[in-house]
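Form 7-S
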Amino acid sequence: ATHSGQLTASLAPKAAVTFTAQQVEAAMGNPLTINSKAPRILVAGNVALEVQSFMSNPGGIVSQNSGAQAGSAVPVRFYMPAANEATGYYSVLRIINTGSGATAVNVSLLDEYSGQATATGQLTASLAANGALALRASAVEAALGVTLAAPERPRLLVSSPTSSPLQVQSLLVNPSGVYTQLVEAQSGTTIDIRAHVPAALASSYNSFLRVINTSSVATPVNVSLINGTTGAVGWTGRLITSLPAGRVLTFSAQEVEAALGLTIPATDRPRIRITTSAPIEVQSFMSNPGGVLTETGNFQ
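Output:
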């Protein structure tokens, strides 16, 4: 830690508070320059916290901005290929070695359905302890020896052959140089999406739920609307009667609201809950007018 400060003297149990970037930098006493690309900050309390870092665009849509995955073999579930760079957007893979020794870092391209590696390469022969490495999609694809088509949304696996712990972020950089997080997944049989974007905004943006049945049996998939203040579960509906084992389905905001049997106003940022009888993975993401997808609902 290079600069520290207090955001609030007392945050009540179950309460939420949102701080702007200006307030965060004022608390730290360290105004960051526009060239401080994706700085790392640590939020700490004396009890367990949930922290979301997100960005609002000129249309008022919020999208996920941070949140690294950790492990010695980290799956990146959603990655934008280098072929998209002609649109003015590009993706970055950011890797931090949180271990106590240097390690090589490898990357593998995974088959979307089987999860098996189809190509493997080395991103670096040695990443120092506490060192960070940020690579554009073109460098990742060069390491893999594979050129990916623009419409593809491949899965990658970033790993340390020495089992050193890594943190990995898949980031999207827009034409203005702003970073946003690409999609992670949550796993389980009850999954809460904390920031669903209603269908009423579909004139420019649309949101989606991508459901992957990672279990060996078929399962129904249900959706419920959660009161954002009380946490009480309200409207409930069924997205699909039976999702076969290993299958992937993507539902639009319109399909979600049709299953719930209601229309959510554009100004709402509701919480929704996905429930099943077998473990699944769920991704919540949004497409902007250029067709680029960013995450809207993950939490730590």
